[in-house]
Design goal:
The longest helix is centred in the last third of the chain and has 19 residues. The chain folds into three domains: 68 residues, Uridine Diphospho-n-acetylenolpyruvylglucosamine Reductase, domain 2 (2-Layer Sandwich); 150 residues, Uridine Diphospho-n-acetylenolpyruvylglucosamine Reductase, domain 3; 117 residues, UDP-N-acetylenolpyruvoylglucosamine reductase, C-terminal domain (Uridine Diphospho-n-acetylenolpyruvylglucosamine Reductase, domain 1, Alpha-Beta Complex), CATH 3.90.78.10. Strand 9 and strand 10 form a beta hairpin. By secondary structure, the chain is α+β, with helices and mostly antiparallel strands. The strands form six sheets. It has a five-stranded antiparallel β-sheet. Bound molecules: uridine-diphosphate-2(N-acetylglucosaminyl) butyric acid (EPU). The site of uridine-diphosphate-2(N-acetylglucosaminyl) butyric acid has 19 residues, from helix 7.
Length: 359
């Protein structure tokens, strides 16, 4: 479909969980992997800009939209197999992630249940190394099938080739390759992954590090996520978000003492600061810092079109009439407020397309 420059194309807002984003020249949905490959290579050969969209749950698209074609990955095959007696699943990239988790649990396998209820497409999970409740994609990923847009070739690569780290990988922010399918190791007999996250272990009544029945873990995770507005629900504006808007900041070792002193000065010596060991320093909790910097849940109030979720300070939400500019202005305010209060820089977690935070 080609439009003259005056014509407003289909709105990308319909493809994102934030329901934000201006027009694209065209939107093409590919329900088969072969069609996805052919479509992307054809658009590339014609010099058309391409925006690959999965579940739209980690995308912030500017109000001016995207001057090109959005290709929606909607391929949904799922297969189970075994290697050396170890089960695994192969899922085409367009499967809804949570539907895939549910399928594995219903088929009697464990391993993915801690990642229940995460919005988005299966193919995008390795891109930002999705994680929740003590499990991240890097722990369970077997292989990813990639299309190289430069050569037109497809290949399977293992997790070692992807530089998976906290909420990032070598695929994030790069358009050179398209994920066509993903494969995850599974546990037989419906045994969950080790339950490392304290809040979840408590909810399940197991010791941290123990396991439980995958189906039961999935139910508890869904309950916890619902309580935080982190399970999609059309009727609940708290879920019109891109999940966590900022990553949890990792403070380098050299700055930890200064920053903790600044936090303690503000919140008082009796308040425990949530902190977790990280590779080259200490990981702090962005949601906690935002709240203690004065941005409480629901900030800045009922009338605002873009506000913090009333259930979790780390989710920035569209109350129905927001623009991307509104959302980014709020993000800028929160980022600046946390920096002023504690000297900690927050970085956006979603992919920003044709837009940016105010400087
Ligand atoms: N907190 C507040 N106020 C709030 C919410 C949280 O002060 O409104 C504080 C609490 O002290 C809480 C702490 O923040 O104990 C951590 O909150 P939570 O357990 O919800 O985890 P998170 O660090 O905010 C991360 C992931 C989520 C994932 C959860 C559960 C990131 C950026 N976010 O959130 O992932 O679901 O852990 O494992 O790592 C996402 O990436 O989009 C996402 C939702």
């Amino acid at each position: 479909m080609t439009n003259s420059p005056e014509t407003v194309g289909p709105l990308l807002a319909s493809l994102t969980t934030l329901r934000l984003g201006g027009p694209a020249r065209a939107i093409v949905r590919c329900t088969e992997t072969d069609a996805l490959v052919a479509t992307v290579l054809d658009l590339d050969s014609r010099g058309e800009s391409v925006l690959i969209v999965g579940g739209g749950s980690n995308l912030v698209i500017g109000d001016d939209g995207f001057d090109g074609t959005a290709v929606v990955v909607a391929s949904t095959g799922i297969e189970y197999a075994e290697e050396d007696g170890r089960p695994y699943v192969i899922a085409e990239a367009g499967n809804d992630w949570d539907a895939l988790v549910a399928d594995t649990v219903a088929a009697g396998f464990g391993g993915l249940e801690c990642l229940s209820g995460i919005p988005g497409a299966a193919g995008t999970t390795p891109v930002q190394n999705v994680g929740a409740y003590g499990v991240e994609v890097a722990d369970i990923l077997r292989e990813v099938r990639l299309l190289s847009r430069a050569t037109g070739q497809t290949r399977w690569v293992g997790p070692d080739a992807l530089d998976l780290a906290y909420r990032t990988s070598s695929l994030k922010g790069r358009d050179a390759e398209v994920v066509l399918a993903v494969s995850f190791w599974l546990n037989p007999d419906g045994v969950s992954a080790p339950i490392a996250y304290r809040e979840l272990a408590t909810a399940l009544g197991v010791e941290p590090g123990g396991t439980a029945e995958a189906a039961r873990v999935r139910e508890r995770v869904l309950e916890l996520r619902r309580g935080k507005g982190m399970v999609l629900d059309d009727a609940d504006h708290d879920t019109w978000s891109a999940g966590s808007f900022f990553t949890n900041p990792i403070v380098p070792e050299s700055q930890v003492d200064d920053i903790l002193a600044r936090i303690t000065e503000r919140v008082g010596p009796d308040v425990a600061v949530p902190r977790y060991p990280a590779d080259a320093g200490v990981k702090l909790s962005a949601g906690w810092l935002i709240e203690r910097a004065g941005f409480t849940r629901g900030f800045p109030g009922d009338d605002a079109a873009a506000r913090l979720s009333t259930k979790h300070t780390l989710a920035l939400t569209n109350r129905g009439s927001a623009t991307t500019a509104d959302l980014l202005a709020l993000a800028g305010r929160v980022r600046d407020g946390v920096r002023d209060a504690f000297g900690v820089d927050l970085h956006p977690e979603p992919v920003l397309v044709n837009c940016q935070l105010p400087r």
